[in-house]
Structures are given as C-alpha cells and as structure tokens.
Amino acid sequence: MKNILFVASEGVPFIKTGGLADVVGSLPKCVDKKYFDIRVMLPKYTCIPEELRNKMVYKTSFYMDFHWKNEYVGILEAVVDGVTYYFIDNEGKFGGFRPYSSNVYDDIEKFSFFCKASLAAMPLLGFRPDIIHCHDWQTGLIPVYLKERFAGNEFFQGIKTIMTIHNLKFQGKWDVKTVQDITGLPDYFFTPDKLEAYKNANLLKGGLVYADAITTVSETYADEIKMPFYGESLDGLLRARSNDLRGIVNGIDYEEYDPATDKFLDYKYSASTFRKEKIKNKRALQKDLGLDQDDKIMMIGIVSRLTDQKGFDLIAYIMDELCQDAVQIVVLGTGEEQYENMFRHFDWKYNNKVSANIYYSEAMSHKIYGASDAFLMPSLFEPCGLSQLMALRYGSIPIVRETGGLKDTVIPYNEYEGTGTGFSFVNYNAHEMLGTIRYAEKIYYDKKREWNKMVDRAMAADFSWHVSARKYQEMYDWLIG
Ligand code: ADP
Ligand code: GLC
After folding, report:
1. Where are the domains of the chain?
2. What pLDDT was estimated at residue 481?
3. Rounded to the nearest whole angstrom, what is the distance from the C-alpha of residue 52 to the centroid of ligand 2?
4. 64-101: per-residue pLDDT in tens?
5. What is the CATH number of domain 274-461?
6. In 350-429, where does DSSP find H-type helix?
7. SS3 for 162?
8. In this structure, which topology does domain 2-251+466-480 adopt according to CATH?
9. Mutation to probe ligand 1, out of 15, 16, 20, 22 (largest number of atoms < 8 A from CB)
10. For residues 211-238, average pLDDT
11. Which residues line ligand 1 (CB under 6 A)?
C-alpha cells in the first residue's frame, strides 16, 4: 500500500471557492484503493458549515513556534465517503467568513502556518505519506520546509513531493524580509534560483523549485506556461523543469454531477431522455428568474468566478449586440465588482433576456447546467476548467476559447463530418467570440437535429476521473519507485 497525503487550501464537501476544491474532493475517491491510501489535509476554517465541522473528531494538539510566537495546532479527523480528512486547527489563523482574505499578506501568514503545522502534525497522524501532493501556492512551502527544518527528522526521510499548479496566476508573493520573518527560513533560500523572484519572495516558486515532480491540470496549459504569455514570469523556471512537468487533465465527480439523479434538478434526464426532459428545466428556470417563457429561445449559461481570467471583458464588449439576438443569458457568479455590476446593468437593461445572479449557490449552478442549451466560457487563460465538463455532462453545449483545458476537452463542431461537442474560437477578440456564438445560434435554430446529435456526443464524452486518476497513479508509482 502506498500512502499519499494531499495538502490543500480547499476541498469539497468542506470548503469551496472554485475548481481546486472539486479536484481535491473528487480525485482521492477515484484512485485505486487496493494500492493507494490517499488522505487529505485541510485548514479547519471557522467558515466550514457547522454540520461538517460536527463530523470532525479531535485527535491531538501541540504548540509550535511560528512567526516569533508559540502557536496552538490542533489536529482533527473526519471520514467522508471513505476518504480520511485531517484538519489543522487554529482559530486565530483560520477564522473569518471566507477561506482567503483580500490581503495577500494575511494569506501568506496563514498558509505559511498551515504548511509548517501540516508537516509538524504528520508524525502524530499514524499515517506516514510516501508522497505529499501539494496544490497551488498555499502549499508551496511544504517542499521547502521538507528540505529545511524537517530534513533532519527520520520520519521525513525519503518522502517525495508533487506540486500541482491549478492556477499559475496566484503565487503568494511578498517582500523578502517579511516572508523571511514569517517563515523563519534563512537567507540561503532567498536567492533567484530558489524562493526569490524579481526581488520578491514567492511561495509557489519555492514549491516549484523543491518539489520532486510538477503537474498541472491539462496538457495544453502545461505547454502554455512554458511561454511568457501564460507563464506569469515563471516560464523560465518551468522550461528549466520541463522534464519534471506534466499535464494531467482534470475529471469531475460523475456521481455528484449526474443529470439523471441530481437532487437540485426539478426534472431529471439522461442521454436517452434529454430531448423531452431537459426543456422542462429550462421552463422552470425561466419562470424562477422572471425571463420570457419561451421553449424555443436558446439559453446560454455562465457559472463562474467573475474575474478577468474568465474573459468577461469580451462579453462586456459585445453584450449589447448579443442581446439583439434571440438568446437568453443566465449568469451565476461573484467576484470583481466591475463584472458584477456589468451583469447587473445588462439584467436591468434587457430584463426579460438577461438574468444576473450575483451570489454563490451550488443548487443554482446545477439548475443552470441542467436548463441551459449552451454554456459560455471565453477564458483568457484556463488551466483546466471544470464548468465546461459539467456543461458537457448536462448536455449544455460549451462555447469556449481555445486555451488550456478548454482546448483539450471541447472538440469543435464540424458540420461536414458531424463531429464535435462544442464551439470554439482562437483569438482573445470579442467579435471572434460573437461570430462563434452566432454560428452556434445558427445551428441551434436552423439545424436542430444536428444540435441534438451534438448534445448526444457531449453527454457521451467521458470526463469522469478514471483515465486521469490512472495517470496520477502511474506518477505516484514512478516517484516512489
Ligand atoms: P475556477 O476553479 O477557475 O473557478 P473551474 O471551472 O475549474 O474554474 O471550477 C469552477 C467551479 O466552481 C465549478 O464547480 C463551478 O460550478 C463552481 N462555481 C463557480 N462560481 C459559482 C457560483 N457562483 N455558485 C456555485 N458554483 C460556482
Ligand atoms: C483553477 C483553474 C481551473 C481549474 C481548477 C482545478 O482554479 O482556474 O481552470 O479547473 O483550478 O484544477
């Protein structure tokens, strides 16, 4: 049996702000339990819902030196769906209404603490990982600390680390002196070949330098981040480590996201019944959201964090033009104020066609996947993207920009060969996107049979974890030897 410990800042069902939580919550369930024991370590945020906090059992606690103080570290444990979760507890560090604060400094302090405490807790778990699998910048210090203060401890000898990049844009950067003060790491680590990048300390960079292997969440993104445009200033390092870097596309939880059993859908449907049943969800959503009651109109869904990563500048640019067409646009998302207000504005202006739902809701997200005919995701960059996979599963045809995981998971429609599962465009250009949306409208309105065959293909595409989980297993085997 090989032991793997995921360390991450969020994971379903406990805490989620985006796709990272979906991956951390679903991949461990799908790895072969005969050979691998995968467990997950998360912070015990006070904003985790109470019914989930009640599932956690206190294991032990200790005090640890951190940032010139002696801090409490509690360890709790919970088992959900056969997966063991550990939680690092310290209310001062993990309080508040959200897992992340708007101030990077606070987050750097919080997650440096999390990294050090996670390592210090490991000998007390009764579970020695062969591999620590780290996710995003919040866990970047783990491979570093492992080579530093934990290196002398026999328990940690031979433990390997993997750093998975879910989003290279976020790196955990602050000035060297402050980060040195927080982390207690000596000068040696703050040089441009280690944690320093362009005069700042950079926690993700630390992880990328010291991890034994690096992965990211699609093959295309693995190529893209070796180039300056997508490399977020770390493309040089990623080129240098390209032998240790590979892309493994994400999957989604096919039990949780299943239109045939989805508890959030008013009308369940499957690949064989969508022609009759899916429309009922559209009617229900139109009624709920006060849109025109119209069976025939093409409904385009958007479920997303509202940030520039997701291509909202393109949408803002052509929204007036798009709203002249026979379409309905249903948005669910929260994030940057400018995009929240942009959608509120168009909801006000085209009230019977546009519905802006500026909040976070699991239930509403499922209803939109279940009701919409098409799903718009014109990202500027997209490491993998899970929303388009959910859309495919629910027979909502993705319209995407060909970048990162969007390129790897959506096959563009080819009307001559009758192939494809969605529509895509190449350049980050608003009218190229509008042209693609209009092409989709044309197929939807004029070639409904072709459209429905595309829905057949979309729903038949398999983005459950089993292929990708096997790739992780191969990597674990190879690393452990
Ligand atoms: P990212 O991780 O960059 O946000 P992904 O496409 O990988 O993008 O994952 C987004 C996840 O978050 C999906 O599960 C999506 O359904 C969900 N999501 C995003 N915004 C909301 C929202 N406002 N309400 C509910 N779920 C949301
Ligand atoms: C990040 C990326 C997204 C990816 C998710 C899970 O949030 O933005 O593209 O799907 O992580 O890997």
Report:
1. 2-251+466-480, 274-461
2. 85
3. 24
4. 999 999 999 999 999 999 999 999 999 999 999 999 99
5. 3.40.50.2000
6. 362-371, 387-393, 404-409
7. strand
8. Rossmann fold (3.40.50)
9. 22
10. 98
11. 18-20, 22, 303-305, 332-334, 360-362, 365, 384-387, 390
